[in-house]
Amino acid sequence: LSLADPLDAGADIVITLLDPITDWLRAFLITQVLVPLRDGLLWLPFTAVVALAAAAGWAVGGRRSALVCAGFTLFLALSGWWDRSMITVYMVGFAVLNALAFGLPLGIWAARDDSRAQRILLACDTAQTFPSFIYLIPVVMLFGVNDVAAIGAVVVFATIPIVRYTIEGLRGVPPTLIEAAEMSGASPRQVLWNVRLPMAVPVMAVGLNQTIMFGLFMVIIAAFIGTRDLGQEMQRALSQSDVGKGLVLGLCVAFMGLLADHLLRRWSAARAVRLGLA
Known about the structure:
Blueprint: H1 4-43, H2 46-78, H3 82-110, H4 114-129, H5 136-143, H6 147-171, H7 175-183, H8 188-221, H9 230-239, H10 243-274
Helix pairs in contact: 1-3, 2-10, 3-6, 3-8, 4-6, 5-6, 6-8, 7-8, 8-10, 9-10
């Protein structure tokens, strides 16, 4: 007994119906969005990127954070894998932006109702039980083997934490604050934008942090379909038992994640202090 044959037949029907749309979307994204974005990041001199990282660190945590962020970025520049690192940044950055565009509205919508929130959280829990490479199957089926498929898989995988933490952050706002706003005559939209979202920002920042980490992880897995980022080089190092190269590449990915984590943790901690939550 096997479901493979009917599933294959159903997939063929779906591909046939969606093929004109997916072909146009793939061509548009590659030529008008992804290639210009990738080339723009590759064009940037590493000194400008290091300075930008240091400035971001200074803004959120002063001199110490500036040195930490500059150090992480400088390692990428001196590792010999700057171009591959920028390709990884472009893929993760674009995927995270799309994950936020889908995840934030979905989390806000789900947080408005208890039963709805529970259903969405159950769907998030279920999605996290799947092996990560499973997310590559539908996007490769629809878009073929290219950066669009890889980024699509990252978007689906990385949307989960931002949805979860948006729901938890909004539903964790003290009821007394909401009641005070409503008694002052605030509309539901005003309560959302002026009370719920500002108070939920520290928790939502944790979700953004996790979204970036999920994106980095999934980009490495997406190297199975032929991306040209650090993940592909890591797979080559693994197949050749090249320990030194593998460690350097692993540190590059780790320092990207640590840079994002440091900036978001510093910023969210300062935000929590201003809101009186810490």
